[in-house]
């Protein structure tokens, strides 16, 4: 992380750390939608730019950071969506994804609340 921060594309690039340890661990990963109850740390990679010609450099920085840390990552936090996350269903929701698709069909069968990585309804 130190390497990536020292090679950041600009002064606004950062890695935000959050420690979810505590009461969040007292609930089973399958009791709610949030699966990563035993996570030690959650990280968000942040960058921004003002000019169009800075876009590629900033995006490459985040992608490089993600690729290098991926072997040490057990999942991703759904409230920090990233369209480049592969297998986002498992990465965000772990083993809860199948159950959450059933919940989706009960409360949003027409998929009104839809975005690129939203849980699709489970049609039997």
Automatic annotation (TrEMBL):
Cross-referenced Pfam families: BBE
Highest taxon above the source species: Bacteria
Gene Ontology molecular function terms on file: flavin adenine dinucleotide binding; oxidoreductase activity
Berberine/berberine-like domain segment(s): 76-120
InterPro entries reported in the protein's UniProt record: BBE, FAD-bd_PCMH_sub2
Matching PANTHER family: OS08G0158400 PROTEIN (PTHR32448)
Designated name of the protein: Berberine/berberine-like domain-containing protein
Species of provenance: Bacillus bombysepticus str. Wang
């Amino acid at each position: 992380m130190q390497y990536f921060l020292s090679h950041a594309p600009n002064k606004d690039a950062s890695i935000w750390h959050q420690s979810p340890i505590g009461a969040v661990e007292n609930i089973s990963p399958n009791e709610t939608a949030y699966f990563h109850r035993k996570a030690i740390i959650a990280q968000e990679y942040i960058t921004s730019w003002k000019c169009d010609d800075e876009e590629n450099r900033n995006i490459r920085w985040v992608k490089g950071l993600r690729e290098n840390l991926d072997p040490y990552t057990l999942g991703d936090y759904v409230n920090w969506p990233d369209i480049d996350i592969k297998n986002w269903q498992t990465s965000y929701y772990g083993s809860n994804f199948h159950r959450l698709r059933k919940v989706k069909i009960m409360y949003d069968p027409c998929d009104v609340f839809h975005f690129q990585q939203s849980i699709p309804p489970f049609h039997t």
